[in-house]
Predict the 3D structure of the following.
Amino acid sequence: QYNTPEVDKLYQDDAVWIITSSFIIFTMHSGFGLLESGSVSAKDEVNIMVKNVVDVVFGGLSYWSVGYGLSYGDYEPICNWFIGFGRFFYDPTRDQMNVNEEGWSYAAFLFELSLATTASTIVSGAVAERAKLKSYILLGCLVILIQALPAHWVWDKRGFFYKLGVVDFAGCSAVHMVGGIIGLIATVYLKPRRKRFDEDSVHQMSSPTNALLGTFLLWWGWFGINAGSVWGITGGRWRLGARAAVATIMSSIGGGATSIVISFYKTKKLQVNLLINGILSSIVSITALCAVSRPWHALIIGSVSAAFSISVLPLLDRWQIDDPVGVVPIHLTSSIWGMIAVGIFCERDKSIASATNDNAGLLYSWSFNLLGIQLLCTLTILVYSATMGLLVLFCISKSPLGLRVTDYEEQIGADVIEHGLAGTNVARYVVEKPLSTRT
Amino acid sequence: QYNTPEVDKLYQDDAVWIITSSFIIFTMHSGFGLLESGSVSAKDEVNIMVKNVVDVVFGGLSYWSVGYGLSYGDYEPICNWFIGFGRFFYDPTRDQMNVNEEGWSYAAFLFELSLATTASTIVSGAVAERAKLKSYILLGCLVILIQALPAHWVWDKRGFFYKLGVVDFAGCSAVHMVGGIIGLIATVYLKPRRKRFDEDSVHQMSSPTNALLGTFLLWWGWFGINAGSVWGITGGRWRLGARAAVATIMSSIGGGATSIVISFYKTKKLQVNLLINGILSSIVSITALCAVSRPWHALIIGSVSAAFSISVLPLLDRWQIDDPVGVVPIHLTSSIWGMIAVGIFCERDKSIASATNDNAGLLYSWSFNLLGIQLLCTLTILVYSATMGLLVLFCISKSPLGLRVTDYEEQIGADVIEHGLAGTNVARYVVEKPLSTRT
Amino acid sequence: QYNTPEVDKLYQDDAVWIITSSFIIFTMHSGFGLLESGSVSAKDEVNIMVKNVVDVVFGGLSYWSVGYGLSYGDYEPICNWFIGFGRFFYDPTRDQMNVNEEGWSYAAFLFELSLATTASTIVSGAVAERAKLKSYILLGCLVILIQALPAHWVWDKRGFFYKLGVVDFAGCSAVHMVGGIIGLIATVYLKPRRKRFDEDSVHQMSSPTNALLGTFLLWWGWFGINAGSVWGITGGRWRLGARAAVATIMSSIGGGATSIVISFYKTKKLQVNLLINGILSSIVSITALCAVSRPWHALIIGSVSAAFSISVLPLLDRWQIDDPVGVVPIHLTSSIWGMIAVGIFCERDKSIASATNDNAGLLYSWSFNLLGIQLLCTLTILVYSATMGLLVLFCISKSPLGLRVTDYEEQIGADVIEHGLAGTNVARYVVEKPLSTRT
């Protein structure tokens, strides 16, 4: 039942790393909340913060009871390369006899939970200002379950992409791509906000300051995801954590600089939303490769991701796809590019070859093998998530709950309708009127 | 003077854990400040942020000079089961010769300081919008000293509840119950805010967004308190830290879900203040048991705590007790329930029996022993803190300082009166008028 | 190529410490952003947040490509006591063969980068509300390069102040003094904001709440700088980290208490800006000595620093120096005092004599030696940074870019001019008018 002091020490050091990383990752909910709250119009500002709270609460409940088991359940007769089974209503003390394994199970669950709850949060941005609160709660719980399978495929040792040797350290495909594509499907399904594409409509941000503060919080929180995703520090893995952290900041430097240059070039001004899209999309794009990325890899990958992000915006406008807080540029295009970038820039680690499953990308192996695996994984997850997302949205919208608020409710705003918040918020309507009457 | 490398390593690893936890705990002051600032009316928004700064400054001064010594002083001729003595104006370099002990003393002082300053902060919420600033400063310093004794009883190895075998890992009784009961006494003593219980009074929140952001910050900061309270990671204690962290998030999931369901059921809306009360009260309730709690324990304890919290609100209203930021539901009812819950759910740890002083609760031992100890501790601390709080409030209110602001000052607001802040704040009055003229 | 497990462990433990510290330090950009954004008038609130983003993006680019090499480059034929050379466009994987050294290089670069980007941020406050955005971007990049040399002198093992035995643990001279003096030069060079010193001008803060929240964030972030600056935890250095953390909080207690007492004494009110100046300046003043400071040293040093800070404010007013967010009191006076304080209070560490280069201050050695070194370093850095800052400002202002916005642009505000942000911000103008029409 007990292990040697040396083994105890390995468990201790690795567990402390992922526990601390989880703490950091949870702070990202503050960031998501503020970014979304500051980006929507003032009448829905509080509602979107509440939705971010709900993501942790009901998303967490959904993950603890079922989702975690679908990803990492180990009940041998059932679990396979496609799906996990077991560990439902997870209770590590029950499931593990060895004390080190018990402790590790708690730490690992905490880390996975912190990561999973961010996936449903992504969708909250896409449906902002027009999804009913109760329907959103249900949607969030189901997104957690949809996301559980890609996590199994990519990260569980039984998963088929894991066995194929896919490289995705920190959730580029299994978190951001899933959230991004479901977000896109949801925003198309829900249709745009009222008068969003009218000729003289005005785009309102309730608070650009809060949106930028949220961006900052996400930026720093991402160190927890990327550095934490090396799953420990022993056996020299701390070095991969350090590399992941440097890659995170370098990619954001690339993405930020690119978006600033493009914004100045195209509009003569520094557009706040382009800046936010540029920075966050660049960090998403490096999540797949981060732990083995060189600084200049990250700089290039982040820059390209920001360029993609910004060029997708006019397309969304032309196709009248209303994406209130930039889910498509931040999570979708960048995660697709991030997965592809691995196939190009991935380099074998000089000491821990297993970090990249002994694979290398085009640039370092002149082989299209890894690129192919990455593309297959990307395509599979896109098709799977889109299908499941559409199915779930269809079912909810046809259920008695319904999906979209009425035109009247949308006009009044969710802060009043869903939360009964008058007071300061009522006052803000006066302020908004001279703007919105023109629309 | 020097120890072996092995012992050095133990000190190093444990100290780093509590130092890092302290850093996290200090961030909770941002959370308290924002939650309180967003929950009061706009005319006192800045004042309450300043009070949270003051808590660290003067509370810290009070703790360093006297409070820490009353809790953990080790001057043998005087200190006993009731009170500590020594270590006043604490200077570890002077008090410890051994370098490891010196370092550990610094780390331990930092951790205790971070915890103690949160106790006086709790009271700041209870007296919001009507206590004079100077009187509040004095009150804060004295609360720190009041709180020093329960900390001695529960956590110091000489303390009588410690010897009795009470289980309170992270300040359920010694921090939250002390703060909660003094807060209740203070808010009753101060009487409600003007026109608070008038027929057509309007409850204003200066910023629900900020209140929710503050809730988020507290939520993540609590990982530092609960995981840090295992006092290190060596000897397998990292496992208890991991369990404490999972218990923290699971209890908040339970509390959040419960409060959302109750809110929808009772009001058809998701009330923001019920959500905040539910989440924070559930985390308070798990502080006592966290390190040995299973996920489902935490889920139940948190859910019950949220239910208690929400059911106490109508009582406060009926008795015309004005509790501006929810000190009673968040800190008082939940800490009482949290201490009792230990007596029910506490399980012996399979490896570190001393974690629960070799005690187990009703469910795992069919003995009322631990429950009795928990109840005795609860009752003693309630009676002691209420008495001391009342004494202190009486003395301050009869002193030349006085306690409550004048009616005129309350109407104008502390931001102008105490801080001379016109400008944007003056502007906000215009905005508020259509609401407040009705009262 | 590989080291023994014992050496691996040392690398691992130290690297994890500075990586984690870097994560904390990066959060300070949120703090700087909010403090500055809340302190300026509402028309420039978003612009200053963007400038804080830009500091990380372009400042980071500048540091990665050139700055880091000037500080810590090790290309032997060129680098000397005055300047580093090499490591440009830094790529540790290329520059280090040994895996431990590679990992350490990533961690060290991350830490230095996090520190360096804060230096240019300081200047952003000084030029708030009147520097053109593009010019500011250029200025920020150049400040990073200016700052690279003092960092080399003080912290690189080849640097001449390092060899002289100067004591500056956490950037008192090499970060705050450089930023503070360039900020002073810049604000004088740019001239005051329009109507700032008119008879009936009104000082506006867009949001005192945000300014205080920013102060909080900086306060906690500073634990990362001060504790992280012991560069690891092995060999008993964790003890110095614990001391640095306690010194940080004790100095802020001293500075906060002093500024509150002065504010009450002089104005009968607790002025928010005096409180902010007092707390932040006291933490700056302890950065030099933190790791070997006793609690009472920190308390005194912080108190004196706050007193200096507050007494410099009337002088700035008399000389009509417009310092929008308090760069002079927070970073300049306090860093000068902090360097001098080392010469007075520095004590030899009982175990790690090299921590203070075996030097002690006046109080513990009755020798003026260390004080002399500190003064020489202070003077050199002041003269160098002022000269370089002036040169850079002159070049930018004479370039086609220009430096200061037009009177019209300043009146409209950077949020509209540089970022095209109307919407809620336009609304705020209505609110401000009754105030600003008087000026």
